[in-house]
## 1
Amino acid sequence: MKKLLKDPFLHFILIGVILFALFRLVNQTTETKNTIVINDFDIENIISTWEMQWKRPPTEQEIQNLINVNLKQEIFYQEALKMNLDHNDEIIKRRLSQKMQFLSNDIAAMIKPTDADLEDYIQKNKEKYLTPYSYSLYQIIFSPDKRDNNLKDATDVLNLNKNTSFEEMKSKGDALPFNYHFTNINADELALQFGTQFSEALVNQELNNWVGPIPSGFGYHLVFITQKTKPELPKLEDIRKEITRDYEYDYQKELNESIYQELKKQYDIRIDIKSPDFDPEFVKYLQEKLNN
Amino acid sequence: MKTLKTILLTLLFFSILTNCKKDSENKSETELLTDGVNHEKTSEILYFENKEAFFGETHLHTKYSLDAFIGGNRLNASQALKFAQGEEVLLESTGKTMQLKRPLDFAAVTDHAEYIGEMYSVLSPNSKAYNNEQAKSLREVNGLEEGLKLFVELVVKNNRSSKPQHLEFYEGTMSTMSAWEIMNKQTELNYKPGKFTTLHAFEWSGAPNGGNLHRNIIFRDTIVPDLPVSYIEANRETELWEWLDNISRNGSSVLAIPHNSNASKGMMFDENMPNGDPITKEYAEMRQKYERTIEIMQIKGASEVHPNFWPNDEFANFENAQSLENYSGRSFEEKNFVRYALKKGLQYEDELGINPYKLGFNGGTDNHNGLMSNVEEDNYSSGSHGYVDATAQDRVKNTVDGWAKAYDINPGSLTGVWAPRNTREDIWDGLYNRETFSTSGPRMKVRLFAGYEYKDSYEDYNSFVKDGYAKGVPMGGDLGVDLEKTPKFLVWALKDPMNANLDRIQIIKGWYENGELFEKTYDVAVSDNRLKTDGTITPTDAKVNLTTGEFDNSKGSANFMTTWTDPDFNPNNKSFYYARVLQLPTARWTQWDEIKEGVKYPDNVAKTIQERAWSSPIWYSPK
């Protein structure tokens, strides 16, 4: 039952029933054959279109002319419909199929996702929303600006200072405009400061020990990681806007597809290609593919 | 069940169609958007007491720019802004995917205001003009040749004439408003205070007779007018400023950023106003009020200096887009360049009491393919304009119509803004206060302060910067006058961690003395002990491997931090000082094309370049 309630097609049907009922209520009086009613809405439309183009309201004479033009178009349009002139017109086809799509988009937009829907969506698209790694760490740099062999210096300091205090360790590196101690800095921010090579190298380093040397664009670093937070899924509240946008976009696509598939079931699609240019195997393949 | 479904669907279709005619308008573009825009919580916005450098784009075109659309761009503002945040995008015209190596901190989409209404019609199946022949031909353009024909017909003949007009299928103001609304909504939806800032913006594309006077218009907040202003309504910069004045009275905070003075045919910094009279005090006031920075470099060349007029500047030969002079009747003139304008501004200040060219520096790409700040030399595989330079094979032989050879184009430049937080207000205020710098692509950072009470040297960066603000002014500011004392300058630069080391920092000084304009360049910090006793410098011998593209990082410096005093300081001269930071040589994008794509560029195309950053100037203005 729960699954059925979530079925986009069911939503579609329910909304359809409601709209149908509304439509009957509102339109009881105007549905007579061969009557054309020009109402406030139409005239407003005609006038605003004119104003857009000419940047002034039309005169009475012009209004009359405009109505005439519209009337002519409407009558020809009605008659053309009766004569089926709209059939197999490529432009009309394209336009109408587009309108079908807009319709389903409108319907998708009517259904606002619940928190449960969004939570579910986050779970299904985990990798897209995972936060980056985050660290608390100390770091010192051995810069080539000031040393002949900064790699060797870094290695020596590492080997000789397994148990040196943080206070003392601070002065072993070179003065560059970076923090010695970072608290809860995420890998993206680290990458902006030191480059991606550095931030990526931190993932596999052991905690609570001086490790390195780790290269960056500024030289070799020794790093002491006190805390590492693995990527995690953010709370819905923190990314609600983003999730809602993504969800609605996906839902729209899903509904579009489901309506199409439902409609397609009503049709028997036959491939009737006899041209010798085509391999019969290919025609068979097409036949199978298109009916799935 | 089957038939019931069919009936219901059909009924639904018809009932909605008859009753909700109005409803389906705008859906093609707005479908991705939700109505309620509420930004995520602001509590986590990081605050930097001594400000931080944020990098971003201030000049980019999407499919809402007619010329970009013709060039095959099918990205909208939202997609371009996603790209700026590090996501991968697909370029429909070539089927290639592109991605930045590092996300940006902020960005503005600046579509040409002229034809966004027309583009709305072209892109919205429900618009009246959607099936107009010209609109259709725009949608159906396929490839360079067809595009070029349409481009010349619709853009060149029209927009570069002295009186531009709308295209034949323009539906009126409403369509322009619709387009502007869509653009603003997409800008709004991508704003993540503290993480990624988007700015509402557009480009006014005035180019009377092909002389480039374009300005990007950038807003501080969401108080934007119903409509942007275009070259069609405002024919010259003076009319643009009047419009800006008008919307400012209605609550907007807004900036105009000029670009490509190098291609302005002498008009960007002309001695005369549009009406032919010499520049007046009122003109200078309006200009300084709205034009706070200039885009000193972009894909169509750097506008700082040109070797023809600055033969003694050994670094002037840099991305000058030399073939600009072969198209649209342009020629290089000294007065098209920013350093000239900065000097000339001092003279105006003396004569009129106000400096019309008090310009800080920012950077942009002007990319027409939707790729925000795609500035890295080794990531230029899709070019910058669309069909014309989308592949290496195109770039070897094609000309960006009316502008320059594709190989003279460069990947553009970045804006750096010093701001306490990455929010719209703070980024915009940084631009307004000119606490900005531009880089030719790499994310190097530069700081410059001037004051009278600084120490001769500093132990660490934090006390250096703290003093910088406490006892003086940052880049973009005015050093107060104290005739008894000599000012000191705090100069600092940090390399891009993912690019080459630094070569040196120079200070470029311009001044006005006894009715004449002067300039001088000082090398204030140099790597590898290359400063000789006579004050000259041995050029760097750092090489680039032309078969692998690798640069030599055994040379150069990661960081400079120094206090500098002007040895020629004269307290009575109006002057300006700006810093130029040079990087060690790296491979130019054309070399990367040769390495990766096996193409061959003409011999006169530079194989290596020295990327650089320019700080906004500090002015000193004794009466």
## 2
Amino acid sequence: MSTVIEVTDVTKTYRKSEALRGVTLALQPDRIYGLLGRNGAGKTTLMSILTAQGFASSGEVRVFGEHPYENERVLNRICFIRESQKYPDSFTAEHAFKSAALFFANWSQELADRLVTDFQLPLRRNIKKLSRGQLSAVGVIIGLASRAELTFFDEPYLGLDAVARQLFYDRLVEDYSRHPRTVVLSSHLIDEVANLLEHVIVIDQGRIIMDDDAETIRGSAFTVVGSAEKVRTFLGGREVVHSDNFASLASVTALGTLNESETREAAELGLELAPVSLQQLIVRKTMSASPASSGAADRPLSEVAR
Amino acid sequence: MNRVVKVMRMQLANRWIFIGIPLIILAASFLLTLIIWSFIPNDGGVRISGGSQAVMWYFFALGIQSLTLTFPFSQGLSITRRTFFLGTLSLFSLIALITAVTYWLLGLVEQGTGGWGVGGSFFALDWIADGPWYQPIAFYFAVMMALFLIGFWSATIYKRWQATGLLIVGISVALALVGTLYVIGSRNAWPEVGAFLGSQTQLAVAGWFAVLALAPCRRFVPHPASGRALVGSAVKWNRPRHAESVPLPTLLHRIP
């Protein structure tokens, strides 16, 4: 199947800052993408440009093969509720859902009703008087019930309690498996969403620093725990991303994969091998990319990324 | 269903805003006027009230709100700028037309009852109500549309260029007005201006209001070839090629 989103060398410059720098991406249909990065990394800017709510300073954007700007054929298939989504002052959640039902062809009122019960959302209360969490719930419900072919969730969990967040993740996976579509979930709570994601895009200071299968990324590094000296011998010349030392013990995260004999060797040395969490890996990558940002800005992307 | 009609229905999701509240404002201002008339001693003269304009100012506020709040919401529902503009404009035209006809009908009642029995004039104001039936309707309609669109454009300028933009436009308009006054004064042309204003019919005034309200539409429509608006051409703007066929006020294009 053809790609849903194609972004080529997109930059976005504000008067004094660069929000996006040379972003190139291709998103395939019917997958769940995680758009991860720190606050202000450019996640919302990128999503705004993809949905024609914002404009790129340069570069090409294609959504469903066409430019999304003022393009009903494309926009009809997209749903993007911003993290700071505004609603008319006079609206209640019910008004918002009724309006959404008018515009999304695949809207499921049944799912919306169920989510309202799940999130215990007051339907008749003025939207202005909803709490931050309830406001997020309104956005989450519109996003899920729209069943749009391409749905963006922009930090949808803000203000939601742990139970509500879990509910959102569960409902997303449940409805996604029944009605596959392309989902882009922007988040900085990486561990929470890690299990949902099939593909991970990490953005930092306007650059894509990681764009890979979630499985590939998880397998791209490992952690060894054991006596510091043995760990050092075992790792040899491997690139170390992070190391923690407690007395004579060390826990070191290194890049690369281990083959069978290496795994056996580790066991013989009495070293413990552990998988790396997505969050740890991304934090390390982001931190190693950030301090050098002034220099890194001139380096080619591939060097920073892999 | 047509998406433009859907935008109208979205705007009407809360009926109070466009229907209920205007009716209450109209009824309240009319009743208050009647009460005031009742305690002014009746010397047989005509009592004039400007209370009928209360609803129109409410439309000015609605024009602002429909852009600052309903527009961002419409973007969340993936409505194009063009559809949003057409739908909102259609709804306003419809409501302005209904209001204008209502004013005209109530004006007829007013004239038929000798100014509600107390010689008052609230709907059928002198001059506005003179002449054929379509004149007052056109006048009220144009005034309302002008107020709504001025609110809408101001909000657009605010969204695009924030307070600075609004200040610059506001000060420019004020300067232009003062300049006009100065020119008229320095040429001792006030009598001619007075004669000109006095000679205007309701239809002509309606026309002037239409020009005032629609001027930004025309001003800001982009030139197809250059992709730049006449106004604001100083600001470089990369318009996607696809948008060239979209006849829409450029200002609306530019709201991020």
## 3
Amino acid sequence: MGKLPTIGQRFTGAIQANDQAQRIAELQSEIEQLRSTQSPNLEEQLEVLRRQLIAQSGELEVDITLVNPNPHQPRQTITQESIQTIARSLEQDGQISPLIIVQQGSEYVLWDGQRRWEAAKKLGWKTLRAVTAPMPENLHRQSLLTFIHHEDLNPLDKAEAIVKEVSALTGLGFEEISTMLSTVLRRLERQQQMHQLTNLVTAHPKLQLQGVKALDVGEIEEKLLLSFLDLALNPASMKANLMPMLSLPSDLKESIRKRGLRGAHALALAVLSAKTLKISENQAAKERIKATQQVIEEALTVSKTRELVTQIKSKYLKSETSSSRDVTAVARSIERLGKSVLANTDTEQLVALKTLLQQKLAEIESTLASS
Amino acid sequence: MAKHKAVIAILANAGGVGKTTLAVHLAYELGRRNFSVGLIDLDPQRALDVFCGLPSAAAEFSIAQVLSKDFRGNWPFVSAWENSKVEVCQGHPIMSKIADDLVIRRRGEYTLADRMKNYPLSHDVVILDCPATLGMICENAIAASTGLLVPIQLEMKSVSGAADLVQWAIAIADELDLEPRPPILGLVPSLYDHTRAIHRQYLQQLPEVASQLRIKLYPQIRDSSEFKNASANGLPLQKYRPAHPACKDFVTIANDLVKLVKEGKI
């Protein structure tokens, strides 16, 4: 009697198809990751820096246990997926660019390459190639400047990093920064001095100081404005675009960080609050999370998102009445019906008008009585 | 109680490998864990009727009605057994003809999925008992499901059928552009008879295959004449012979599904 055939080879096709499907899914997520994390501009800058550092002191191989993450890394959003992606690329292609590290005693602080470092730890690597940079005067400030003008940093991380820096410079808390910024900008707007402030964004620090002094603002307000200008940030756009990020409800913050929700969408969705909808916090959060889900899944545009929000709002605020344009128009025409016009109109038409007005008056009275 | 509705399609590319047995006993086991379960019989052979002790249903009170063009949401579910949380949407022989109609109907492959979306079911878990031939009805099942279970008898016919099925399921999920794709939750060795050399041998080889496929392998369900006696009486084994050792064979899968459903993973 012959031997029983084994079942393994029967599955060759299935295994291949399965592997292929998985590989395609991985590649797709890799492409998405690359698209969302790479800004050619920043990469170029870092490349230049890397080359300079290699020329100065050469590359070295560092023990990754001696490298410490930058505690001031403004990119707080580092997803496990993005680390996984980098780990795969390290495994396949090896380390392409060296880390940039700063010597600190007998150890190092990471300046660039946090994800590569974390991925290497995951892979069980013991060393990485790195170049050392001299200790910047203020590491947080250096990395902050690199990052706040890096378009891919999400607006929430950006806002947090900036407020942290401004708070350190001015000694103000987040609430104070927010209120003071609003007050001073409103005043400048009233005094029509906004364009003067805007012109200072790209000016030399000396001119910025003179310019702000000329605006005749309070001492702390001056410090506040200068701390934004020093980071090449427009205080007005800071107030309009970034400060609101900080007061977003936690579900929206989480969606920005973990699921790539965009800032403008988050602001539109924030309208769905307990206060606006006149419902409990819990209910409001539920509506918001549902809407957020839809926005992300269907990749809605900002205006579509606003439409969705209006729709949801109208579900809760149905009974609200609003002023009608028709009524305003009619009232205006009646006002224009002067005595001279009436005097020159024939009686039949005047009687018809009188009846109509009496009818409408009765309808208005009954509407008023029932509301 | 479940956050998301789980829809599990039980598929096999061969007849008589224990699809309906798995569907029925799994449904009962989930019902015992206080999940409401909807069993849908997509097989024109309507074996589910026998297992649930139900008289045959007219087409208008069967799944055939649900897939017909003028369905308006009145799902024809009937209770399966006394004191159980399992309900059945019965099958009908006309399903083989409906399968042909679906081929030319717009969104034919998504008909069942569309029905479930437009007229949502209240059950925590829905189990789809599929026909043995891979075709339009099974494509509907895949499009509507959130996970697949593949019973596999340890004989060459069923084994190679399962291999083809896995490949087919991946291709279909791709063609239908399902997002997310329903994962194969596991292979379930069924009708296992430890006295047969071929069963023992293939059971030994299966873990290797499953790991290469990155698909979970569940513990085997034994073959027992008591399954036949139970179904002849229209009962699941757990009700017919509660102390029978084979009743325990469904526990791991049920536990796993409960966990997945509670975590919202399927």
